[in-house]
């Protein structure tokens, strides 16, 4: 009931998943990730255990192919499920059960895979992969969004649209970006709006968050406030309206 893209930026090691579906809150069920460990999308007749247990197996050093064998081998319902995953080294694999509803299938390429079920046809994942590979000069999040837009333009989920999600992990166990459109007439369009809003303030603040290498983080707000103010001034000078629904900040 979904199609998704799972990718790793080979230059940075950053991981990302984007997903869309004619199903409520697809971002709550499909993507499972850990920085430096890997990313897993579990879909069709979703088994959350493919995500949680799959990440545990990745952390033990198991390969994606081995993990698929373990998870499907113990699951009598596996032929109704679909999963694809990538590890922190860029090794990836995919599985589509024989009983997934047509059209269903997957494509696996270097550092990226696309998989879907109940789609308008194979062109959905083919176009998603093409768009992702054609935007190699753009940030990972933008490449994933471009891939999903291309898949939607090629027919997407044959039942229609409802929800979408985008998650990006750097080298920590928490997400650098985690945005969702859970119930929307244009979920991918809403996801793009949220991504633009995230660039106004959130992503700059995220750079200051503590990491394992620097558990203190950055607590001096001046640099980040100056950066945000400069970007805001540039936006206003260009006459670009903010897509945020937030009320204006009140003076401190």
Could you please describe the fold and organization of this structure?
- By secondary structure, the protein is of the alpha+beta class.
- 33% of the residues lie in helices and 24% in strands.
- The protein is built from seven helices and ten strands.
- It has helices at residues 48-59, 64-73, 123-134, 140-153, 187-200, 202-206, 221-237; strands spanning 2-8, 15-21, 31-34, 38-44, 81-87, 92-96, 105-109, 112-117, 163-169, 177-181.
- The strands form two sheets. A six-stranded antiparallel sheet has the order 7-8-1-2-9-10, with helices on one face.
- Strand 1 (2-8) and strand 2 form a beta hairpin.
- 43% of the residues are buried.
Mean pLDDT: 94
- Order of strands across the biggest sheet? 7-8-1-2-9-10
Strand-residue fraction?
15-25%
First and last CA, distance: 47 Å
Question: Whole-number radius of gyration?
Answer: 19 Å
Q: Which sheet architecture does the biggest sheet show?
A: 6 strands, antiparallel
Question: Spans with pLDDT under 50 lasting ≥5 residues?
Answer: none
Number of helical elements: 7
Q: Helix and strand succession? A: EEEEHHEEEEHHEEHHH
Looking at the structure, what is the overall shape?
Answer: globular
Structural class: alpha+beta
The level of helicity is: 25-40%
- Please, what is the oligomeric state? single chain
Number of strands: 10
């Amino acid at each position: 009931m979904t199609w998704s893209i799972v990718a790793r930026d080979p230059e940075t090691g950053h991981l990302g998943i984007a997903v869309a579906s004619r199903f409520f809150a697809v971002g709550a069920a499909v993507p499972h990730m850990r920085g430096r460990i890997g990313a897993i999308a579990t879909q069709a007749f979703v088994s959350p255990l493919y995500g949680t247990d799959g990440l545990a197996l990745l952390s033990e050093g198991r390969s994606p192919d081995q993990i698929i064998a373990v998870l499907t081998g113990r699951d009598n319902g596996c032929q109704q499920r679909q999963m694809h995953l990538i590890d922190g080294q860029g090794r990836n694999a995919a599985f589509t059960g024989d009983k997934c509803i047509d059209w269903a299938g997957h494509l696996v390429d270097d550092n990226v895979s696309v998989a879907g079920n109940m789609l308008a046809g194979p062109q959905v994942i083919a176009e998603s992969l093409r768009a992702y590979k054609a935007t190699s000069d753009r940030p990972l999040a933008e490449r994933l969004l471009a891939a999903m837009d291309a898949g939607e333009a090629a027919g997407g989920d044959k039942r229609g649209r409802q929800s979408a999600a985008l998650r990006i992990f750097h080298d920590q166990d928490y997400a650098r970006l985690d945005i969702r459109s859970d119930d929307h007439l244009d979920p991918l369009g809403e996801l793009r709006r949220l991504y633009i809003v995230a660039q106004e303030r959130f992503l700059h603040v995220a750079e200051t968050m503590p990491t394992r290498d620097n558990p203190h983080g950055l607590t001096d707000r001046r640099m980040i406030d100056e950066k945000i103010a400069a970007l805001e001034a540039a936006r206003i000078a260009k006459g670009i309206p903010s897509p945020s629904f937030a009320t204006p900040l009140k003076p401190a």
